């Protein structure tokens, strides 16, 4: 059997676990559980004999994050950039194009980048069966064996046997998210959760898309045909892709096709959609408290604390989730986890930048983080990865002092280029054309002190940029 | 009538409103309500015709804080330094010595620095009456008209009329903090709360102390007689003061003297002893939420949020207090406010520095605040008040880069002295003897980047210090 092509949907801007996740660093890139992100764990789960190298469908904004997180776990693959978000039907259509270009009957498996799977062996075994049924022409979705009457998922009613050997059934119906009583009934009747992960043959799905959503099929085909490779990324054609109507693959195909099948999956799956889900998946003490980082609970039960840097104490409160980052704190009742998105929307209405951005901002060359600010000054910590270089740039309103605290910097300042070593500094007057390079073998860390009358990030003129941002 | 000598007890290390208050910046110096500290509001309340300049009894560690907070509200007075904490009886004995040195029959009024009084006019009118009765030889305590059956205060049972014109009664009994049912009974029987603020004639209190606690009286007399003036502070003699047994003025005198009297006080008083009390005294919205700083409540009632810099959101939780500082977060159930002290003790056991210190550390010359740190570097913001100078010093393990971002610095570095202006920097190599002075008219602000193998605050050799810390 040919290898399955795994496609990971990695373009979402999930804010349901704010303030840890934000638009500029969404949920799939966060180490929600353990030390790796759910995206990285997804990569590792799919790093198995049955699978080809992964295809990552992501957003232009996340391309360097995807690249770096893949490098961290030593997995390479093809990174495809959507010029804008057009929902899952368009993304699946693109997956079909990519797979079909390799072999028309290639089996494709589509996975979300932000789900957790605790039983990896069971998952991998299940994938083999799902792929087997997909190869026969079924569109096989993973139907999760419910652990309770959840109201946050759609359900699937399994029907007649489709592929007996693989344990795959026909889908009798997809049903919407139920209320609690209906959910209980569904469970008793053997319904399964719709996980939104599925397997199909490229030609089968392509035909279904062409039949049900010809505009999407045509837009995807054209966007792929006109795609350009830039810095190793496959950038879909913007104009063509924009023609794809925005709709989910569930509506576009799954609920209409006669090929829909389901494989019951007991794989310890969670979409980690709320902080409550994170608490459920975490190790707890005798009082039901789960603590990550600098948390302390006294006289409280069933609490979750996530505090990377800030000492966070809960005293005399039960069933509460507290998440403290360096610029935002969330205190949410355990039953209100699904309202976090509404809160973030409210914060956006109030124009709070914490709703969208972290204080640490990732760039292709590393990151910067604001650590202090005043009326006429700002202090940043800048970390540049070995071999990377910032753009050649200048500012109209600010001068900069750089103090190297780790590693070595090669600094271009107007006509000269000098090396600045640990415990040395250099001054960049207003208007000077400058560039920062890390020519060394370890991270370069420096403290930047900006002074001036305007310190906005947009006071930058990029004269030349290896990351094509100029 | 001679003016009353107000004595403000300002040496406590109150941590009941941690993390806002800590040992290095206790409750009385914090702007708990409004823009000023309770100490400053106390000073302003006593800045009235009937009162002489205040005497502040404080701890050696807080002397510059007291001085600065007095300067901020434009009030001067005598600052007396206790070499160590010996509880309130010793402090009152010292107040007697100070007052008696001016006039043996001077009327003294002793106030806590960390209480709130909402009805200032009523308070001042009351003080005149209390002083009148004190001049007649009574030791008059303020008996607060209870607003509810509080279990956190001692109660006073008023007895026969003492001074009819002043509305002052004899104290029939002081009673311990009651349980809720007993408190209810006390209220029905007209008991008053013991506020711990009182008026007396210096000679009367001195005689009572000499009779009941001769060791305290003797120790105070000797510590005062041998006191030395240093930088304008009156520093009590350490050895003599240490001989005073540790006990409260309630136990030492008030519960034993036949002179105890009480004046009913309807003055909007609170000892602001818990975060719940802060919530009670704060303005609230229609849902009972009180927010100070960057707080947001969605779907919650009767919450208090204090967030000076960090966006703090409460979602779907009622009756909770959330206090976020730059290095610590407290989430406490409204009914558990009196357990904060226990939590702080627990944090001390865990050797958390946040239990004792703030990130911003006040010094006689201004403050410094740690803003970033790594393995071999640390970044601080340093603010020096106009006309102030740091000690002449050197370090064994660290070099320092100073970048001036506001004001002007006069920097001595070994043999040279140079001016460093805004947007200029200077480097201080390891071992160099240096001093920082603000010769200007506005605050000097600079960013200090330290690099080295050991960055502890104790790597400092003070060669010369205008604040006598060398």
Automatic annotation (TrEMBL), chains A, B:
It comes from the Bacteria. It holds the Pfam family NTP_transferase. GO terms for biological process: GDP-mannose biosynthetic process; polysaccharide biosynthetic process. Keywords: GTP-binding, Isomerase, Nucleotide-binding, Nucleotidyltransferase, Transferase. Residues 295-347 form the MannoseP isomerase/GMP-like beta-helix domain. One of its GO terms (molecular function) is mannose-1-phosphate guanylyltransferase (GTP) activity. Residues 6-285 form the Nucleotidyl transferase domain. Residues 351-465 form the Mannose-6-phosphate isomerase type II C-terminal domain. Belongs to the mannose-6-phosphate isomerase type 2 family. NCBIfam families: GMP_PMI (TIGR01479). This is mannose-1-phosphate guanylyltransferase. It comes from Rhodoblastus acidophilus (Rhodopseudomonas acidophila).
């Amino acid at each position: 059997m040919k290898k399955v092509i795994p496609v990971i949907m990695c373009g979402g801007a999930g804010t349901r676990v704010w303030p840890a996740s934000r638009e500029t660093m969404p949920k799939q890139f966060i180490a929600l559980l353990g030390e790796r992100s759910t995206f990285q764990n997804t990569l590792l789960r799919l790093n198995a004999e049955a699978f080809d190298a992964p295809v990552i469908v992501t957003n232009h904004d996340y391309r360097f994050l995807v690249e770096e997180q893949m490098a961290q776990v030593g997995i390479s693959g093809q990174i495809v950039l959507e010029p804008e978000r057009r929902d899952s039907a368009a993304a699946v259509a693109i997956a079909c194009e990519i797979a079909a270009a390799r072999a028309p009957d290639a089996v494709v498996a589509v996975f979300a980048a932000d789900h957790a799977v605790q039983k990896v062996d069971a998952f991998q075994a299940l994938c083999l069966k799902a792929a087997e049924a997909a190869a026969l022409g079924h569109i096989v979705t993973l139907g999760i064996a419910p652990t309770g009457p959840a109201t946050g998922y759609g359900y699937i009613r399994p029907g007649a046997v489709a592929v007996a050997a693989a344990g795959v059934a026909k889908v009798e119906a997809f049903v919407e998210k139920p209320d609690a009583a209906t959910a209980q009934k569904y469970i008793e009747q053997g319904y399964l959760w719709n996980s939104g992960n599925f397997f199909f043959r490229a030609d089968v799905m392509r035909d279904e898309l062409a039949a049900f959503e010809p505009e999407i099929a045509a837009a995807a085909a054209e966007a792929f045909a006109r795609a350009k490779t830039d810095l190793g990324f496959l950038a879909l054609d913007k104009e063509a892709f924009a023609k794809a109507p925005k709709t989910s693959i569930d509506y576009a195909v799954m609920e209409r096709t006669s090929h829909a099948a389901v494989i019951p999956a007991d794989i310890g799956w969670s979409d980690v959609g709320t902080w409550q889900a994170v608490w459920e998946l975490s190790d707890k003490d005798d009082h039901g408290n789960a603590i990550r980082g600098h948390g302390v609970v006294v006289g409280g039960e069933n609490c979750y604390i996530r505090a990377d840097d800030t000492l966070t104490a809960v005293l005399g409160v039960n069933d509460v989730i507290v998440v403290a980052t360096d610029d935002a704190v969330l205190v949410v009742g355990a039953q209100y986890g699904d309202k976090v998105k509404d809160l973030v929307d409210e914060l956006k209405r109030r124009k709070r930048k914490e709703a969208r951005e972290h204080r640490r901002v990732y760039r292709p060359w590393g990151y910067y983080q604001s650590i202090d600010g005043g009326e006429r000054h700002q202090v940043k910590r800048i970390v540049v990865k070995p071999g990377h270089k910032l753009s050649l740039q200048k500012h109209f309103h600010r001068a900069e002092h750089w103090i190297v605290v780790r590693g070595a910097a090669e600094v271009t300042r107007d006509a000269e280029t000098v090396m600045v070593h640990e415990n040395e500094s250099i001054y960049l007057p207003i208007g000077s054309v400058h560039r920062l390079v890390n020519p060394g073998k370890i991270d370069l860390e420096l403290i930047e002190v900006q002074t001036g009358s305007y310190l906005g990030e947009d006071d930058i003129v990029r004269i030349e940029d290896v990351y094509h941002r100029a």
